[in-house]
Amino acid sequence: xxxxxxxxxxxxxxxxxxxxxxxxxxxxxxxxxxxxxxxxxxxxxxxxxxxxxxxxxxxxxxxxxxxxxxxxxxxxxxxxxxxxxxxxxxxxxxxxxxxxxxxxxxxxxxxxxxxxxxxxxxxxxxxxxxxxxxxxxxxxxxxxxxx
Length: 147
What we know:
Arc Repressor Mutant, subunit A, Alpha-Beta Plaits, 5 helices, 38% helix, elongated
């Protein structure tokens, strides 16, 4: 990665639908050189895909929480079982295996507090691997740079 590729990645992170012509102008390349670099970044897996940024409220999602989850067993089988359960839970939009006092950090997006309570109780709370759950409710997001 050089400075130009870094600039290309930054611009595409801000606007994945930018035209090649506009991108080339912003990074100071000819359109053909810019396209070659973007294609190379895609081929090498630096750029893995493009996403739409969605208005969650329009989709009926009005409640976001992060939850830390501690497992009662530190075996690979326990972790795999928990991860499979999170993979099929549509409410979980991020699942991270972390270091520290607990094993997982989840980002959970649902319609409202009752929907979160139901997910917390009926999904996470019923998993035999789960020892502890701590919830952190998002009250606002002054910065959210996720694509």
